[in-house]
């Protein structure tokens, strides 16, 4: 029987790609999928006569990576649980869903997903004779920007609304080329994928998604089946794409572990997660990178930080000789720049730069509400909730930290007392929490217009302001907001003391920083110096008067 399929037909909400030709007989054994990558000139998602196939475009089944031939054709082996996807090349775009999530894949699950609390993929039927992928040309400058969300993590629709008002509204009209959520798109309730995607779609740019430990099916009996609902909503949990001069790889580093004795229980959470990639995904990364030039920037995007991935050494061997490679994650709800060295088994000629991204939800939408009713949700390292914008230029990149609901210039919090006495100044400690700071930042302090600039000391310690805030707020009885978490040591905190000899009066403390990428920021705080208290007279000893 001959049938024609449109690329983008969704069965149960899934992109099926452009499917055309004769339906093959269903088989539970390995089959060979064939199809074309083509320029969809009339944008109907169907490969029509005369529409040109595109040569040298990469296609994958999640393990092997092949290039289309001169006619745009490819062949790949598939099983009854395979997702085929095109690796978007530079200068082209894939179709987008109504929520602007890229539709670059075809799910082949003839029998569909097993029954679960949250539905997975509906049966896709037999393998089509041709699984085709449409592409559309677009301009991609060498210089571009991308938005990165760490852990939006809403529990319910109310918290999705928090995201809309705290983050989305200020980003409408962005000039970023695309955005990425770095996992924990939700907080366990997977029925909210659609609502969350609709809100982000208001930004008007393509949006990619990384799977997090709160985005999986907790009732799944194995890691392989823990992604079924995510796949229904967004497609494969790991994949790659090109934009401009940069190659991006999305990784699934959530392994769902179910002990054998728990597999037949009816408890929803009968297992636990750990950071891991697995042999099949490592093989995909290996095959993918073999076709990426050594002088091209590679960006790895994941949820659990790289140093928390059990089989990270296998990944290190694939990237450590590349001169241009960085990685970014979420998960820990603080912002940090890490430089991975031989102490963690890294063998590359220079440390690997890994960014743990600021989270949208901050401290899980906790803390007292602001005037809008939104929790201030400061993170436990003393940094505000927010997001990052990374600017790319060839092999160079520059991260811009953005605090939610604040001006772009809000890059630090200066901790100083309101007033001190003149005789105390040299004992008073001043702290600066530089939100995007790292061990490669230079931070200095000046007091007054004529004061000299003093280098501040970087410390790994608890932010005093967060510690005080959490103690105060958490002690409130009858509160209707969640407690802030316990303070954690900040990796972007600096300290110094006020200079001695400050005269009574009002003084301006200035803090300036030069970050690792050359970005400069400056902020100030006013402090009052009071006259020293007169020394108290002591009574004379009787009999000593003259």
Automatic annotation (TrEMBL):
Calcineurin-like phosphoesterase C-terminal domain ranges (all copies): 358-519
A GO term for molecular function: hydrolase activity
Lineage of producing organism: Bacteria, Pseudomonadati, Planctomycetota, Planctomycetia, Planctomycetales
Domain Calcineurin-like phosphoesterase intervals: 147-334
UniProt key word Signal: yes
Protein name in UniProt: Metallophosphoesterase
Organism encoding this protein: Gimesia maris
Keywords carried by this UniProt record: Signal
Domain Calcineurin-like phosphoesterase N-terminal, residue spans: 50-111
Signal sequence interval, chain numbering: 1-25
InterPro entries xrefs: Calcineurin-like_PHP, Metallo-depent_PP-like, Metallophos_C, Metallophos_N, STPP_CPPED1
Entries under Pfam families matching the protein: Metallophos (PF00149), MetallophosC (PF16370), MetallophosN (PF16371)
């Amino acid at each position: 029987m001959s049938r024609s399929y449109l690329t983008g037909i969704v069965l149960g909400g899934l992109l099926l790609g452009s499917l055309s030709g004769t339906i093959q007989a269903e088989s539970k054994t390995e089959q060979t999928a064939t199809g074309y990558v083509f320029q969809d000139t009339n944008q109907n998602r169907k490969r029509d006569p005369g529409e040109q196939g595109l040569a040298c475009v990469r296609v994958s089944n999640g393990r092997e990576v092949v290039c289309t031939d001169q006619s745009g054709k490819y062949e790949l082996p598939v099983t009854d649980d395979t997702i085929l996807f095109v690796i978007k090349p530079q200068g082209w775009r894939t179709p987008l869903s109504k929520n602007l999530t890229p539709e670059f894949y075809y799910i082949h699950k003839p029998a569909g997903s097993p029954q679960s609390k949250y539905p997975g993929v509906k049966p896709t039927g037999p393998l089509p004779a041709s699984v085709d992928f449409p592409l559309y040309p677009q301009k991609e400058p060498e210089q571009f920007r991308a938005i990165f969300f760490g852990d939006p993590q809403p529990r319910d629709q109310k918290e999705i609304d928090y995201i809309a008002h705290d983050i989305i509204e200020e980003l409408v009209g962005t000039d970023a080329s695309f955005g990425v959520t770095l996992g924990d798109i939700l907080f366990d309730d997977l029925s909210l994928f659609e609502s969350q995607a609709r809100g982000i779609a208001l930004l008007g740019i393509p949006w990619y998604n990384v799977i997090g430990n709160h985005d999986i099916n907790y009732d799944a009996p194995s890691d392989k089946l823990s992604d079924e609902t995510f796949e229904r909503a967004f497609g494969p949990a790991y994949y790659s794409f090109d934009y401009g001069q940069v190659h991006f790889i999305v990784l699934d580093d959530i392994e769902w572990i179910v002990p054998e004795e728990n597999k037949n229980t009816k408890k929803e959470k009968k297992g636990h997660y750990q950071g891991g990639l697995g042999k099949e995904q490592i093989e995909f990364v290996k095959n993918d990178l073999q076709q990426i030039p050594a002088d091209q920037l590679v960006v790895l995007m994941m949820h659990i930080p790289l140093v928390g991935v059990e089989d990270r050494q296998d990944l290190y061997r694939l990237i450590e000789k590349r001169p241009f490679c960085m990685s970014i994650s979420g998960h820990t709800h603080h912002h940090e720049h890490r430089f991975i060295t031989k102490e963690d088994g890294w063998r590359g000629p220079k440390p690997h730069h890994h960014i743990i991204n600021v989270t949208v939800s901050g401290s899980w939408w906790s803390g007292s509400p602001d005037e809008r009713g939104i929790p201030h949700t400061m993170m436990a390292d003393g940094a505000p909730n927010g997001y990052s914008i990374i600017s790319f230029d060839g092999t160079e990149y520059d991260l811009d930290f953005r605090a939610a609901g604040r001006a772009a210039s809000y890059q630090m919090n200066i901790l100083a007392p309101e007033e001190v006495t003149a005789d105390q100044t040299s004992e008073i400690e001043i702290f600066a929490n530089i939100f995007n700071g790292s061990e490669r930042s230079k931070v200095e302090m000046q007091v007054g217009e004529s004061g000299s600039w003093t280098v501040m000391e970087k410390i790994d310690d608890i932010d005093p302001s967060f510690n005080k805030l959490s103690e105060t707020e958490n002690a409130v009885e009858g509160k209707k907001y969640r407690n802030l978490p316990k303070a954690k040591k900040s990796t972007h905190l600096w300290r110094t003391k006020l200079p001695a000899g400050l005269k009574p009066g009002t003084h301006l403390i200035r803090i300036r920083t030069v970050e690792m990428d050359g970005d400069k920021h400056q902020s100030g705080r006013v402090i009052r110096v009071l006259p020293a208290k007169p020394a108290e007279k002591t009574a004379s000893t009787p009999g000593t008067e003259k």
